[in-house]
Amino acid sequence: MTRLGVNIDHVATLREVRKVDYPDIVAAAHAAISGGADGITVHLREDRRHIQDQDVIRLKQVITVPMNLEISTSESMVDLALEYMPEHVCLVPEKREEITTEGGLDIITHRVKTAQAITKLQAKNIQVSLFIDPDLKQITTAAELGADVIEIHTGHYANTRNKAAMLTLIEKSVEHATMLGLEVHAGHGLTLGNLPPLAVMKNIKEFNIGHAIVARALENGLRSAVRDYKNCIQKALKSV
């Protein structure tokens, strides 16, 4: 069965807007797991714009599914991953000025740094994934570096009108990676509308989806949340 990893970064984004203790990241993880999530993904960014170190520590202690920790290839972030010991680490590109991850990690340009990170993480039995574009040269390099998994960046597919061409490229990338012995995951920008054509690709073993799931949860749960607060007011008035 194809797995679904749920990225809960944007639950933390909402919390960090006001620097409060809600919504609770652990409660969100439990809700995702009860809904069928096969894994929980969090991106511990260097600027700590959403997920915080304490979130990673708390989640690792209580969740009943594997944690996929997204980090940059910087030595300090790799060292933190070795301290927190998630089951999986996905190495991703990171720029301070970006709104969200804008593309795949260029492991050809950053070959040495990526190789060092992979070696350190795998030495502690952490499965390593590389978040890369659907590019055959990048995929070949991932295999050469000894990565366990590649996660194909699907943002360009999600944002283009010419989805047929991108689907063909992704399909070729999946075939190439599978031939090289890499497990294939995919994620970024995926929604209920654009997911199905990828979901039928037999060698994509896992999808990691966050923003669209959190947005849908907000849409589906807003009526209930408003009702709860309305009832709270009415109950308080009746008690006077």
What attributes does this structure have?
TIM Barrel; 10 helices; 17% strand; 8 strands; alpha/beta; 240 residues; eight-stranded parallel β-barrel; 48% helix
Provide the spatial order of strands within the biggest beta sheet.
1-2-3-4-5-6-7-8
- Total separate domains: 1
| Average pLDDT, all residues | 95
Low-confidence segments, given as residue ranges, are none
CATH fold-level label: TIM Barrel
Look at the structure and name the CATH superfamily: Aldolase class I
H-E string: EHHEHEHEHEHEHHEHEH
Care to count the β-strands? 8
- The CATH level-2 architecture is identified as Alpha-Beta Barrel
Individual helix count: 10
Tell the overall outline: globular
CATH class: Alpha Beta
Helix content: 40-55%
**Roughly what fraction of the amino acids lie in strands?**
15-25%
Query: What's the Cα radius of gyration?
Result: 19 Å
Distance between the termini: 55 Å
Structural class: alpha/beta
